[in-house]
Design a protein that fits this description.
270 residues, alpha+beta, Protein Transport Mog1p, Chain A, 3-stranded antiparallel β-sheet, 12 strands, 26% helix
């Protein structure tokens, strides 16, 4: 059942509230709550945005750094691009013989050098066993049995991947290699290389070096040939390092004179 409120004489009545007092309190609390939500949301957004993208001038995240610093898979490493060093051969010869020069009238040309072949050297053949030689021309003259005296000219071709040592060292090495090529001197034994001399030369205004030496032996089946004189001239020409060389049977005067004349006729190409 519903009854009306009863007031005892001792009950004090509360003073009346001001109109709208409760509404103002509720509104203030609501405004404060909304303001806090806005500020908090803004702070969280800025923190997340700064950490994910990295602000201008801000620190870069570890993930970004590792991606930026790691090399591309398509980019070859230094070990893949650097060719392995060549193993140097003491007396290297080109596996391919190429002829790039043309002989002028009455002369033999190879590389950047040319000379007048001796009239007594009537055999036309490439010199056997000469290392570091290409674009070559040579002639020879019969000496004794199967032995011949030979003179040649050509381009110096050094082993790929090995630094060219210069004209002086090249002329010395080629003479040493000729001495070591045993099949050229197969009917002799107890061989030695004596009186080796290297000196600077000038051919048609071009600088170079000439190495000469005498190949002696203790015994052989030869009767007329006493020894072999070796000569290699390497000249720095506009066409590249070039070589003039000869092996001459000692004891055959006509051959010795012919090589002197051939060397005197040596010039650069024009």
């Amino acid at each position: 059942m519903h009854t009306s409120p009863q007031f005892s004489p001792t009950t004090q009545q509360q003073p009346p509230q001001r109109p709208g007092g409760g509404a103002l309190l509720v509104g203030g609390l609501a405004f404060a709550l909304v303001f806090l939500l806005i500020v908090g949301g803004t702070v969280v957004y800025l923190v997340l945005r700064g950490g994910g993208q990295g602000g201008a001038g801000g620190p870069t995240s570890p993930e970004t750094s590792s991606i930026a610093e790691s090399p591309s898979e398509d980019e070859p490493s230094s070990s893949e691009t650097a060719p392995p060093p060549a193993e140097e051969e003491r007396c290297w010869s080109s596996p391919r013989t190429e002829r790039t020069s043309t002989n002028p009238s009455g002369m033999l040309r190879g590389g950047g050098l040319q000379f007048i072949p001796p009239a007594t050297y009537d055999g036309r053949d490439l010199p056997p066993g000469v290392p570091f030689l290409n674009d070559a021309q040579g002639v020879n003259a019969a000496a004794e049995g199967t032995w011949v005296s030979t003179v040649w000219v050509g381009a110096v071709e050094w082993q790929p991947g090995v630094e060219y040592p210069g004209a002086e060292a090249a002329s010395e090495r080629i003479v040493d290699c000729l001495f070591r090529t045993s099949y050229l001197w197969e009917s002799t034994s107890g061989r030695s290389l004596d009186d080796k001399v290297t000196e600077p030369v000038t051919i048609s205004g071009m600088s170079g070096y000439r190495t000469t030496a005498r190949l002696n032996w203790e015994s052989s089946k030869l009767e007329k040939i006493q020894a072999v004189d070796l000569m290699v001239v390497v000249v720095d020409t506009p066409e590249g390092p070039s070589m003039f060389g000869a092996d001459t049977a000692v004891g055959i005067a006509s051959h010795e004179k012919a090589i002197e004349d051939a060397y005197d006729s040596l010039t650069g190409v024009s």
